[in-house]
Amino acid sequence: MKKHNFSAGPCILPQSVFKEASQAILDFNNSGLSILEISHRSKDFVAVMDEAQELVLELLGLKNKGYKALFLQGGASMQFLMVAYNLLEKKAAYLNTGTWSSKAIKEAKLFGEVVEVASSKEKNFNYIPKNYTIPADADYFHCTSNNTIFGTQIKEFPATDLPIVCDMSSDIFSREIDFSKFDLIYAGAQKNMGPAGTTLVVVKEEVLGKVSREIPSMMNYAVHISKESMFNTPAVYAVYVSMLTLRWIKSKGGIQAMEQKNNRKAELIYGEIDRNPLFTGFAAKEDRSVMNATFNLKDESHQEKFDMMWKEAGVNGLNGHRSVGGYRASMYNALSLESVQVVVDFMQELERKV
Amino acid sequence: MKKHNFSAGPCILPQSVFKEASQAILDFNNSGLSILEISHRSKDFVAVMDEAQELVLELLGLKNKGYKALFLQGGASMQFLMVAYNLLEKKAAYLNTGTWSSKAIKEAKLFGEVVEVASSKEKNFNYIPKNYTIPADADYFHCTSNNTIFGTQIKEFPATDLPIVCDMSSDIFSREIDFSKFDLIYAGAQKNMGPAGTTLVVVKEEVLGKVSREIPSMMNYAVHISKESMFNTPAVYAVYVSMLTLRWIKSKGGIQAMEQKNNRKAELIYGEIDRNPLFTGFAAKEDRSVMNATFNLKDESHQEKFDMMWKEAGVNGLNGHRSVGGYRASMYNALSLESVQVVVDFMQELERKV
Predict the structure, then answer these.
(1) Is the ipTM of this complex over 0.85?
(2) Where are the domains positioned within chain B?
């Protein structure tokens, strides 16, 4: 049975990527060796790392603009710490839009003063705060572009002269943005870029080297840049599968093409959420995420019936996060419009049946 | 052509592991989903993580002895930092036996006083120092059990009342040791345990919680223990392949069986190094590593001829590290005696030809 994978992350990746990634476990590049047993210093793997870094900058439109792309380990959670280690001298400004922003703030506080410029916590993070003031003397401004758990997404980033740091874990490569407005972007791979186990950092080199503390080697972006993401053994396979996924994005028309497809999927499901009298959307309409649509049944007594329908039809990962309840349709790049249609059909079938 | 993979790491793993690991990319546990696209919170993956942690403690003989096994990210290099963050209050004692020990010392110095109890640096780390004194007032003693680059291995660990921390990246699961003598063991997976991208930490819980500093969440062993290695998204696939490799070790008879096979391989190659008048071993005999045999040609003019022989025969990764030159035969658990025999045959053929 065909599966429709709405998992919030790790999540669906293209089938063609799985096929090539499976073959490379048996024989990589006709070398007679598995990609799992080759040296990360081998010519073949260095080429993978180079291509992955190159594709990132190309797809984001950041080539020859002073940026470096790094593939590190530890997920976005490690970046909460590394960002502060490298950039926070005295004070930093953070926008709090959910669980991940809150965690980023907590870690940054170990390194200096953190000003929370705004928060939507009082409404269980169901909207993106706007019209807040960013202190001009902060070292940087930090935000989370998409909130996987609550299904909100920043549509317009604030104008500020400060360096902007953005956690784009759950929507990078999904929509066109002027990425050159950002000084540091980070993203756990396991949404639109690849499998769990590697983390992308895109950093404008000029923002580094400005803090006075001594930074441990593994925490130091400058060290990783100087070694081209090979200061120590990288997550070879996760970088390889990310490279395959980036190639796939490029072959399909780049971020522009992804955005068009993602918008169609989002329109389809939000249209049904708004039309269907049984359901209600969780996030404020103007802040709805194109990646993660969060919605609830108005009457929870229908839950058992609805869950049985979609589970029997091979739909995976539609359950909402415990902080929100209800449902969450995570519609990353590789998810087809057809899969979204399957869920919409069940929402309509439920309406007919109850 | 069959390959004989002597790569120092990432390195050879069992062929049966590659086969199962390749299949799981296409369809994991007959779920219709790739292991790369499932949630790390899914029942199927939680079972993988649990089994991997359980197998580690079982194979090391550490079940029900107050230890926890963790699968983290960042490699041994991240552990250089985490060990100091969690255990170094005032002073720590380090034995310097090579590149990795030196790096561990460098990172620890950011957190307190580091006493280098002994070093073999003056002889390019070709031996393991002995009869050194460990200061009784140190917070812990740190050593590296096997030195991949130089081909030395600690045969007898020092007697001390301090907690012992050991980097076992390149020989864990290869030989029987009383692992309960150690309070914290860490190891990058990419030698005997799995692919690059995950790092094993085995820690006796009672040594934690004794430093006064605030530890960032991702650096804090106690946080990772409380979340059973799932504080954030783990390196799903690297943990899975490690679990398969641990299962393989167990099915073959555990560490005892690995050690017997490893000793036969080491005897074979070191016997030839000592017998063959063209070659000389790099490491002091009593400290020779069973994992990594380092050796050089007495007359480097034979190098081209020897290299051509083994490269044409499908031998991979026999070149020595630049710090030592010559050759390095890394003979991890999955390498067959037959592969070692192939190299020994070429060493003998070279002797006949020159």
Answers:
(1) yes
(2) 15-251, 254-353
* Of A259, A336, A261, A353, nearest in space to A302 by CA: A353
A46 in B contact zone (CB under 8 Å): no
Domain B254-353: CATH class, spelled out = alpha beta
Between CA A324 and CA A146 the distance in angstroms is: 16
Return the amino acid letter for B100. W
Question: B241: which chain A residues are within 8 Å (Cβ-Cβ)?
Answer: 36
Q: Indicate the residue type of A196.
A: A
Whole-number Å distance between alpha carbons of B36 and B27: 10
Is the peptide bond preceding residue B10 cis, with omega within 30 degrees of 0? yes
- In total, the C-beta contacts within 8 angstroms joining chain A to chain B are 188
The answer on pLDDT for A1 being more than 90 is no
Q: pLDDT at residue B192 above 90?
A: yes
DSSP for residue A285: G
Q: Is residue A192 within 8 Å of A172, Cβ to Cβ?
A: yes
Q: Which helix (DSSP H) or strand (DSSP E) does residue A228 occupy?
A: none
- Name the A residues in 257-286 with CB < 8 Å from any B CB: none
Residue range A176-188, pLDDT digits in tens: 999 999 999 999 9
Could you give the CA distance from residue A115 to residue A154 in angstroms, rounded to a whole number?
19
Residue B1 is predicted with a pLDDT of 78
- Closest chain A C-alpha to B227 CA, distance in angstroms: 14
B53: tokens are: 């942690």
Task: Compute the distance between CA of residue B137 and CA of residue B118 in angstroms, rounded to an integer.
Answer: 17
Structure tokens at A331: 């519609």
Give B297-303 contacts, CB < 8 A, sequence gap 24+: B297/B326, B297/B327, B302/B278, B302/B350, B302/B354
Domain at B15-251, CATH class? alpha beta
Is B345 in the active site?
A: no
User: Does the pLDDT of residue A236 top 90, yes or no?
Assistant: yes
In sequence order, which residues have a C-beta less than 8 Å from that of residue B240 and are 6 or more positions away?
B21, B24, B35, B45, B48, B52
pLDDT at B121: 98
Handedness of CA B33, B35, B37, B42 (dihedral sign): positive
Partner residue opposite A32 with nearest CB, options B8, B19, B314? B314
Q: How far is Cα B266 from Cα B128, in angstroms, rounded to an integer?
A: 18
Residue B237 predicted with pLDDT over 90: yes
Query: Which residue matches tokens 């199927």?
Result: B44
C-beta separation of B89 from B207 below 8 A? no
CA distances from A69 to A46, A177, B9 (A): 14, 17, 24
Q: What is the mean pLDDT of chain A?
A: 97
Average pLDDT over residues B19-32: 97
CB of A45 closer than 8 Å to CB of A24: no
> For the segment A81-140, what is each residue's pLDDT rounded down to a tens digit?
999 999 999 999 999 999 999 999 999 999 999 999 999 999 999 999 999 999 999 999
CB atoms within 10 A of CB A183: 22
Determine the distance from the C-alpha atom of residue A236 to the mean position of all C-alpha atoms in its chain, rounded to a whole number.
20
DSSP character string of B28-81: STTSSS-TTSS-TTSHHHHHHHHHHHHHHHHHTT-TTTTEEEEEESSHHHHHHH
- Averaged pLDDT for residues A255-279: 98
pLDDT in tens, A309-335: 999 999 999 999 999 999 999 999 999
What mean pLDDT do residues A20-37 have? 97
| Predicted confidence (pLDDT) per residue in A245-259, tens digit | 999 999 999 999 999
Give pLDDT, residue B2.
85
Longest dimension (CA), chain B: 65
Q: What are the start-end ranges of the H helices in B276-315?
A: 303-312
